[in-house]
Amino acid sequence: METCAERLVVEDGVVAGAELRLADGARMRARAGSTLIATGGFQGDPELRTAHVHPRAGDMQLRSNSSSRGGGYRLATQVGAATGHDDAGFYGHLIPSGVSFADPADFVDLSLYYSEHALLLNVLNDRFVDETLGDHLTAMALLEQPESRGLLIADARGFRDWVVGSYVEGAVAVDKFALAGKRGGRVGLAEDLEELAYLPEEWGYRGEAVRDAVKLFNEDAAAGLEPVPGRQLDRLPLDEPPYYVIETVPAITFPFHGVRIDDRARVLRGDGEPLHGLLAAGSDTGGLWHRAYAGGIASALVFGLTAADTATATTTATTTPTAARTRASRATD
What we know:
Layout: E1 4-11, E2 14-21, E3 27-31, E4 35-37, H1 46-52, E5 61-62, H2 71-78, E6 83-84, E7 90-96, H3 106-109, E8 119-122, H4 135-143, E9 150-154, H5 156-163, H6 176-182, E10 187-190, H7 207-222, E11 243-255, E12 258-260, E13 266-268, E14 274-280, E15 285-286, H8 296-319, H9 321-332
Parallel strand pairs: 4-14, 5-11, 12-15
Antiparallel strand pairs: 1-2, 2-3, 6-12, 7-11, 8-9, 9-11, 10-11, 13-14
Helix pairs in contact: 8-9
């Protein structure tokens, strides 16, 4: 059966449960001392992504479940929950352009994790980010570039060590270049640096400028100079032909914007005070990261368990006066 929570019940400023619509259309009210928002975020809703991630975020492919469409976010904001932050970013990865996900396995197989050891150029034929900071951060940076697409270029060393190698020890290696080509993505193989100048015109890049950008990076790297933008980790030149080119776009897993909570998983109001009776965990929460990422499962686990502790403490305080007096005493020590 599918049951939908249509709105939260608020009594004297406290969330006291929810009004539910059952699969057969019947409605009922469920009362609760604590109500947990844990619907997985709003990445499945293009309008919310456009409003709170980036104006072009609604066009990104979704490398996540499509059922997380902001149900919890809407319930919480309808009763005054604070949210944040716009421009916080999102967790996602680069994928080949023009290739649709056909199966959840594609979320990993098509993610171009190796971008940390390649060069990424935008449609203006320029590097615009330190690729070595991480593919998940580069995905955010590419979304904000013109047309939100770019060319990912690796040389033979990068291809050998990272494109067809296991990104994580023990993981099954996938030839992401071959897979992108097989699935209809824009891919190209240049036998030497000069061949980069002959990119297909319909792609919308200037081949000579792309070649020159790679050549300049190689010259700076070989001379020990700091490239612009910087390059913190892999500073080796891409000077081992052939060159493997994939046009890439960002894909989203979940947004960093969401319902604000405190360290007890209690949802906050606009004035920063708890909205009593309402808790949130996982990707429904916001304010945990800003243009960074430390694990979606981690936030679900940590704040899921924290919410359980908070709910249990609240129930105990309500039903056991002695325990409530003990906690109050400890709070004033």
